[in-house]
Structure formats: C-alpha cells, structure tokens
Amino acid sequence: MTVAEWVVLRDLHGCDGAAPSLLADRLGMTRGAISKLADRLAAKGLLTRSADPANRRCQTLTLTPEGRALVPDLSALADLNDLDFFGHLDPAERGRIEETLRGIVLRMGLRSIPVD
Q: What does each of the 116 residues of the chain score in pLDDT, given as a tens digit?
C-alpha cells in the first residue's frame, strides 16, 4: 500500500463514492493520477468503478467491503507510525516541524501528491 493509495482509501471511506474528478480536486491530484490509483486499488479488490446511469461517461469510485474494512487498520498503523517518529517531541517542536514543512511546500509551489 502506497501513501497515495492510502490517501484515496481514507478519503473514500468518509463517503458513499465519488467521481474521479471530484476526488482529484479534493486531494490535489491530477485526474490521471486518480485513474492510476483507482486501477491499482481495483486490482487489489479495494475499490470499484461504476458508471453513472444518467451519464455513462461519468464514473463513481466506491470502496469495496474489503477496502472499507481495511481503512481502520491502516489508520491505526498510521497513528503508530506518527507516534514512533514524532511521539518524543513536545507540541512546540512538532509545531515547528509542521511550520517548516508547510514553508517548504509553499516556497516550492508543491500542489500535487506523489502517486508512486
């Protein structure tokens, strides 16, 4: 599971499905990146694509029951990972790290999330 795949799973977990374009906008990814991620997650049995009955050109991405069940486990692992890396820092130190990283993102004009 890549970080980008996790981000898509987590976002879809909070809804009943989403159009790839909406998901791309929410996550700051390109539609092409969402398509690649959806392909990979579908191949793993974690996501399905369904055509909109009103407009066959539109698709909805939805988590499978397996995908929905996996999100809480992955969330717990992400929390443990954060604790391992940052748990020893006091809140002020964490704040400085977050501020520094946000500054790098702004200075570099980063707008997309890596998909690999």
A: 898 999 999 999 988 889 999 999 998 888 999 999 999 999 999 999 998 777 777 899 999 999 999 999 999 999 999 899 999 999 999 999 989 988 998 888 877 666 55
Distance between CA atoms of residues 78 and 84, nearest Å = 10
Could you tell me the CA-to-CA distances from 92 to 13, 80, 88, 102 in Å, in that order?
31, 20, 12, 15
Q: Where are the domains of the chain?
A: 3-108
- pTM for the complete prediction? 0.78
For residues 114 and 116, give the distance between their C-alpha atoms in angstroms, rounded to a whole number: 6
Contacts of 21 (CB under 8 A, 6+ apart): 31, 34
User: 3-108 architecture in CATH?
Assistant: Orthogonal Bundle (1.10)
